[in-house]
Write a structure and sequence with these properties.
Elements lengths: L2 H16 L1 H5 L7 H11 L4 E5 L3 H12 L4 H14 L20 E6 L5 E7 L5 H11 L4 E3 H10 L10 H12 L15 E6 L5 E7 L20 E4 L3 E7 L1 H7 L1 H10 L4 H13 L11 E7 L4 E5 L5 E6 L2 E6 L1 E2 L2
The protein binds N-hydroxy-L-asparagine.
Amino acid sequence: MKRRNFIKRASLTGVGIAVGNTLASCAENTSEEAKASQIIKKTSLPLVISTWEVKNATAKAWEVLQSGGSALDAVEQGCNVEESNVINQTVGKGGLPDRDGNVTLDACIMDKYGNCGSVVYLQNITHAVSVARKVMEDTPHVMLAGKGAEQFAISKGFQPEELLTEASKEAWEKWKVKAKYKPIINIENHDTIGMLAIDKGGDISGACTTSGLAYKLAGRVGDSPIIGSGLFVDNEIGAAVATGLGEEVVKTVGSFLIVELMRQGKSPQEACEEAIGRIVSKPDSNYKNFQVGYIAVNKQGETGSYSIHKGFSMTKYQDAKNENLQSEHYT
Ligand code: SD4
């Protein structure tokens, strides 16, 4: 079977399964195509969802979408808001540093064509997600790291600046004197922003940006810039993005997994739950000690979110309605 037909079939089957109740009300309407188009009409576009309670960032993305902008511009500009927000100590400027006091950023972005760009271990540049977009659009590569990424950013006109704020420096200095301190993601540090949007044209894009695990070993990179782990977009199926302990997301290639599960017919909610299940059901999983959360959207505009522990939430803009929705959780 040709790839395109295969995708179409799988995705239409998915619609049937994912929204079975709604379909039941569609009386005797027959073909899968007809059913799918009825569902698509029911969904109001555009929409944007983000990990955690990031109202300003999501509002910015919504503004871009409302004015007819692309999902790609929306997720980039939305994430930029949080990258400049020095109060948020897990993203961009003001992010908590690594063990040695260096703020290092990871970010990626993915468009409706499946193109992607990513930066890892980027220093001295606030808008990591915009650098990732430049990698995607202006180079033949997908990923740039460290000094090379920084030099590339500067060559593209990004201004280098000190990312370690007084508040983050103070927190790091306090951390240094505490004996046996063990950072537990989501208790001491969370809010990494992952954002997924569908624009008025029905096209999907996503982005993710973070300063990573606070007080990490120098050189550590998490899931957030790894395409398939921290983020995955397939414009024919849907998209997913992760937050939490990146090592666990990478081990299960979480975001790609969710999109593939949606391709097989699972709803975004079911797919997020199964991806969390893959982490917690490992024989040696010590999931009680860390958090992972996922959000996802399918082509029909249905959304889902799930995490290991309670406390995770998703911010959603649709129909000019702004909601912060507590996510269901495993524990
Ligand atoms: C990481 N996933 O670097 C990121 C951190 C995060 O909420 O999402 N924190 O592992």
